[in-house]
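Comment thread on ticket #2218

A.B. wrote:
> Attaching the input chain for the structure job we discussed in standup.
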Amino acid sequence: MPKPAIKLRPLNVNTVLKDRVYEALKSAISLMDIYADEDPPKLDERRLAEELGVSRTPIREALSRLEQEGLVRNIPRRGAFVVRKTKREILEMICVWGALEGLAARMATVHASDEEIAGLRRMFATFRDSEGASAHIDEYSEKNINFHQAIIRLSKCELLENIAEGLFIHMRSIRSRTIRERQRVTDSIIDHMHIIEALEDRDAELSERYVREHTNELKEHINDYVDWLE
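C.D. wrote:
> Ran it. Output below, let me know if you need it in another format.
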């Protein structure tokens, strides 16, 4: 009897490279503070190609895919830019995110383990009060973003995660900037503790309510005080 042999097809190296370049650019954009300046960040094809060690062809193809997803805008004779949302669009996105994260919190009370929920509390173990958080605002800002991502994941709902991913890039940038405004750190710490306690108690209704209220506070802050969005 002949021995079983593994069967493989030749890899399309070009396709693999295209996907890797696309994923690298998308990941890098997700980590940018795209609302830090008045102008949208420009993506220089030559610099991107040099940093990734590839030709400009897969860079252009990746930028085209990102444009189709609404993350990049190619302007003739000017180049490619990361898309910045208007104030109205951001407010709409926050409303949708609040609904998704609220549902995720409700689902987490059923599907998340005690250890996973305890992990949310450990995120803020080094920030006992608002003074400590303010003194390390960059670190706290990152923990804040990780906290909201974690709640989405604890839903254990892949479809919900995929939908939320489309909003995350802009939500991350908005949260990163607004956490530094009008002493929002204090309210953030209190809100997070309330959410964690509700999750620990497996109170689905309260968990969802606290998450929605927390997100609504962000919406009200942007509506009332943010003048750096169009």
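A.B. wrote:
> Thanks. Noting for the ticket: The chain has two domains: 13-82, 87-225.
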